[in-house]
Amino acid sequence: MPDEPCRPRDDVVSYPTDCDILSGYRQRNETLRQQQELPEPLRDRAAAISLVLFDVDGVLTDGSLIYSESGVESKTFHTQDGLGIKLLHLAGIETGLITARSSEMVTRRAAELAVTYAYQRVERKLDAFKEILQRSGRKPFQVCYMGDDWIDLGLLRRVGLAACPANAVPEVQAACHFIAQRTGGHGAVRQLCDLIITAKGQHEALVQRFLS
Questions:
Q1: Closest by alpha carbon to 159, among 200, 98, 78?
Q2: Residue 109, helix vs strand vs coil
Q3: Structural domain contains residue 120
Q4: For the chain, what is the domain count?
Q5: What CA–CA distance (Å, rounded) separates 211 from 52?
Q6: What residues pair up with 145 in beta bridges, in sequence order?
Q7: CATH code (residue 73)
Q8: Which of 40, 68, 104, 175 could form a disulfide with 72 if both were Cys (CB 3.0 to 4.6 A apart)?
Q9: Alpha-carbon distance 152 to 169, whole Å?
C-alpha cells in the first residue's frame, strides 16, 4: 500500500513538517534502492548480525597519532560514526572494540558510546574474539568485524560479515564482504552501521524515532 501524501498546509511557515521530512527520506531511500540494491548474499550476512566489533586506529579514527610536546597522545573521532554505533544499540545489536594500542581516549570513547566489549593492548585479536564469543554466547556468523590492516586479517576471515574502510590495505579489502565508500575516521563505520540496520529492516523505524 503506497504512503498517503502529506496534507496541504494553510500556514506560511517555511520549515518542513514531520510528514515532509519522512516523505523525503522515503523518496531518497527508494532512489538509493533502485540505484544499488544490496546483493542478496551481503544482505543475508548483515541481517544475521547481532554483534559488531571494530578496530580503532584506522577505523574509528583516520589512523593519525598526534603527540603533544609533553608526549600526550590524541585521536580524532567522527560524530556520525558515534551515532551509527548508538543506532546499532537502538536496534538491539551489541558492539565492541578490539585494538592493539592502549589509550585513555579510547577508554573514554568506549564509555561514551556504551560499547559492551572494550579490549585494548591486544597482541592477538583472535584471542579477544574467542573470549567475546564465550562471554556473549554468539556464533561467528552472528558477528561483524571492521578492520583495516594485516593485524585484522585473522579475525576478518572468521566472522560472518567482514568489513573495512575504503583506505584499508589491499589484503584486507580482498578478505572483506563489505568495503565502505568512506575512509576510516570519516564515516566508514556509519556506512557499515546503516548497512546492517537496513538489512534488518529497521532503518525507517529508527528514523521515525528522531522525528517524534
A1: 98
A2: helix
A3: yes
A4: 1
A5: 26
A6: 53, 162
A7: 3.40.50.1000
A8: 68
A9: 11
